[in-house]
Amino acid sequence: MSLTRHFSRGRDLARTAGDHAGDMFAPVTLIGRGLRSHADWAKGRWAATPKERRGPTVFLTAAALLGIALLPHGPLFALIALMASAAWVGREPKAAPAPAPDVADLKLTALYAALTPYLGGFDDAAPLYSLDGAYKTAFDSWQFDEEGRLTALELRYPPYFTDTEPGARARIEQVVQGKAGRAREYLFDWDEESNRLKIGALAPLATDIVAQPFVTAPGEIVLGFTDGLGSRRTIPVSQGGTTAQQPPVVWRTGARAAEPHLLALGAAGYGTSSLLRSIALQALPHGDLVVIDGAGTGEHACLVNRPGVHTVETSLHGALAALEWAAKETERRLTALNAARHHGVPAPADVTRPLWLLLDHPTELSELAHAEGRQDPQDLLEVPLRHGRAARVTVVIADDLEARDRISPSVRATTRARVLLGPAGPEVAQEALGVPLDIAPAAQTPAGRGYARLGAATPVRLQVPVTVDPLDDEAQAGHRDAVIALLPHRDTRTEAPVHPVRLSKEPSAGRPGPVW
Ligand SMILES: Nc1ncnc2c1ncn2[C@@H]1O[C@H](COP(=O)(O)OP(=O)(O)OP(=O)(O)O)[C@@H](O)[C@H]1O
């Protein structure tokens, strides 16, 4: 017999002996494990027993043991019971529970399945998205936060997906937001050349920036604040008791402005009037205002009688008079500017001082005018809108989203700065901003929250500074005081009732001062 065979036989014998020994000692192992578990249990109970109850516990246990010892065959029965219970407890432990499925895996699988009907090519021989496919074939990278929420995802889509159609994009964006959670906003970055889509969850914007003097150049209006993607600069703002650097959305007005007029549309109660108030407060130090409050709710009464505020009109009659004056004033300024240019002299100050026409809910007045058979106030905006840039006249129109169809075509065509506030579907957002919005809004939107688009630029997120009506008793005192501090003279908040305002028929030769 060779040496190798001896070795292998020896190994087999040793293994068999080991197996037999294992079988023989199995009950002992079982009882030992059970006794260990009993000891652990007893230690645990002892540790959990309050100190004052330990003495009585020891006494009762000793009495029970003594009782058992005195019983005929008591110790034998007790020993058998202890061994039996140890053998029961020491059985093989149950199989460990299956590890919890990975949340990321579950969510991405669900998202992949939800996208398949839209991105799957059922005639495609090797589809990226298919009913029995796996998300890893189409998703390149992803990120989740500590709470297990999707924060970033990059996916590929087939070349035949119609990524140039806003409707097709909107469907994908809705599916992604539905699966990733509607509590947050998502930015969709479509790379049409390489058929890739990058999705990023956006952090909420600060909602505690209150009206204050902003560090800007004359003619620059801070519409609100955005995120790092929406603005290349930051300005210092006082926020929550400290000074913070925040990226502003700045609208440049004036003779060289690319977007000389602004149209802000918003869902009811989402802050278009507050935006108008914020613009008025920033415009007042350098210009004059004509304010038309078409809703007639008196939300701009705090501007009445302020230096630089030409008039605040709430009636159709007053609005028509003010806008007729504004149209003539625009023409007067143009004539004066042309004459100055013709003679090679600087233009007089009264034609270069900015004039602002701020119209809140003008469509309400348009309706009234149609009913009464009078001229539509929006028609009177034609001249300021067409020639406002040269004549330093800026028009700002704020209205309800529901009234967007009643905004006149010339207002739409000439207001190249756009703001949309409050919740709006993809089609409505496109109508308001002029381009599809590649951001899916969150389900809950705070007041003053929306998007701004200046000229041909991509829309950016916007949070308008808190600019409450200082005469609104329900607004926070601190917010009201912030607005009062910006009004041209100290407000007592118990001012005399609004005086009826009457405009002069002829445009003023000099600076258009108050005419009441
Ligand atoms: N930027 C903001 N931050 C915080 N609260 C705001 C903001 N803008 C508006 N609000 C609050 O929302 C409420 C409605 O504001 P506002 O009157 O400006 O909205 P609106 O869209 O003009 O409403 P309506 O369509 O009814 O005229 C007010 O209580 C106001 O204080």
Structure report:
The chain is α/β, with parallel strands linked by helices and 516 residues long. Among the domains are: 111-202, no CATH class; 220-486, Rossmann fold, CATH 3.40.50. 39% of the residues lie in helices and 18% in strands. It has 13 helices and 17 strands. It has helices spanning 3-48, 51-70, 74-89, 103-119, 166-180, 272-283, 316-343, 349-352, 362-372, 382-391, 409-414, 426-433, 477-486, and strands at 139-144, 150-156, 185-191, 196-202, 220-225, 235-239, 242-246, 248-252, 262-266, 288-293, 309-313, 355-360, 393-400, 417-421, 439-440, 449-454, 460-463. The protein has an eight-stranded mixed beta sheet with strand order 11-10-12-13-9-14-16-17, with helices on both faces. Strands 1-2-4-3-15 form a five-stranded antiparallel beta sheet. The protein has a two-stranded antiparallel sheet with strand order 5-8. Helix 4 runs antiparallel to helix 5 and helix 7 runs parallel beside helix 10. The longest helix is centred in the first third of the chain and has 46 residues, at 3-48. The radius of gyration is 38 Å and the shape is elongated. The N and C termini lie far apart (128 Å). Adenosine-5'-triphosphate is lined by residues 266, 268-274, 295, 299, 400, 447-448, 464, 466, 468, 475. InterPro entries: FtsK_dom (IPR002543), P-loop_NTPase (IPR027417). ATP binds at residues 266-273. Keywords: ATP-binding, Membrane, Nucleotide-binding, Transmembrane, Transmembrane helix. The chain crosses the membrane at residues 58-89. It comes from Kitasatospora kazusensis.
